[in-house]
Amino acid sequence: MVALKEWFDSAFYRGLADHLVRLEPSVDAEAFYRDALVGLEGRELKDRLRHTAELCRAYLPSNYRRAVDVLRRVAPLYDGEFRCMFCPEFVGLYGLDDYDFSLEALAFFTPFSSSEFAIRPFLRQDLARGLAFMEKWSRDEDEHVRRLASEGCRPRLPWSFHLRELVRDPAPIWPILDAMRTDPSLYVRKSVANSLNDVSKDHAEWVLDKLAGWDLDHEHSAWIARHAARTLIKAGHPGSFALLGFEREPLVEIGPLELSADRLALGSSLVFSFALVSKKKTVQKLAVDFAVHYVKKAGHTTAKVFKLRELELDSGQVVVLRKEHKFQDYSTRKHYAGEHGVEIFVNGRSFARAAFMLCD
Questions:
Q1: Which of 86, 148, 295, 351 has the highest CB neighbour number within 10 Å of its CB?
Q2: pTM, entire model
Q3: Which whole-number Å values give the CA distances from 117 to 20, 151, 162, 210, 336, in the listed order?
Q4: What is the mean pLDDT of the chain?
Q5: What are the boundaries of each domain within the chain?
Q6: What is the pLDDT of residues 220-243, one digit of tens each?
């Protein structure tokens, strides 16, 4: 698999130089290409992206607006490609003194790649001004512009700095997110849900209260709510289950939690099973999860929650649930020998736990 940084390779810079000189004859294409290759091998992805924007600043017209005009004509040549992010990167680096013009440029560039990172310095400089643009974008006809409205103002956007003012108080972004509560685009709904999930890590009750005010019979709003509450659901927050129609206080009994082995070799699978009995006189909606208590390098254990099944049970109904879970090292998880545990949750409540030894 080719590393993402290789998208900005010598062939890319050769092509970009040719595009620029065709659109702006004053560009010295050979010098641009020569400078682009200086130190290229030692640059990682984000550095190559910034390097490209800096090259454009050095070789395009010194007037900022004229340079942006050239990039507006370049961007469609890279439609839908990550490489095009050097265009919004240019705006983020050099456009802070021309705020309104720059934000309009970011809205133009975002359908060709994404302007979510480039808009962050503008929000840090003048949050209210930037959010006013984004509230307008939340009603734009283009799904990419609507997504920029929600993704760009995420308090904890990955690969970018946190917007600490919004981490402390998310209220200013609510009109933006609320405007897209029934958005027909899954691309947009994912972004709205991710933004609310960010906020839920600091303001759980605020998020649940806002979501409770939506019409969750609407399939798009319900989809957003479910994904926005995913961290709270994994954490077993009672309000998150109630929001999604699950029983707040599940009336169930769990039979013995049976494990296929009490000692397991690394690379093997553990099978566990149990009977779930409904003790309520009416139908109840249940979400059954399980946690694996992994032994860490220092010897303590940390739980990771996994989804098992969602179901509705009639009064007295019994179901037997079974799951196979493999204990194998991955790049994202290394296993250590010692006593592990499996724990069963119903609507966030713990109902059973059993232990086993994982051996080298």
A1: 148
A2: 0.85
A3: 24, 9, 11, 26, 38
A4: 94
A5: 1-118, 252-359
A6: 999 999 999 999 988 888 889 989
> How far apart (Å, rounded) are the C-alpha atoms in residues 221 and 217?
8
For β-strands 349-359 and 263-265, DSSP reports them as parallel
Q: SS3 string of the chain?
A: CCCHHHHCCHHHHHHHHHHHHHHCCCCCHHHHHHHHHCCHHHCCHHHHHHHHHHHHHHHCCCCHHHHHHHHHHHHHHHCCCHHHHHHHHHHHHHCCCCHHHHHHHHHHHHHHCCCCCCCHHHHHHCHHHHHHHHHHHCCCCCHHHHHHHHHCCCCCCCCCCCCHHHHHCCHHHHHHHHCCCCCCCHHHHHHHHHHHHHHHCCCHHHHHHHHHCCCCCCHHHHHHHHHHCHHHHHCCCHHHHHHCCCCCCCCEEECCCEECCCEEECCCEEEEEEEEEECCCCCEEEEEEEEEEEECCCCCEEEEEEEEEEEEECCCCEEEEEEEEECCCECCECCCCEEEEEEEEECCEEEEEEEEEEEC
Superfamily of domain 252-359: Immunoglobulins (2.60.40.10)
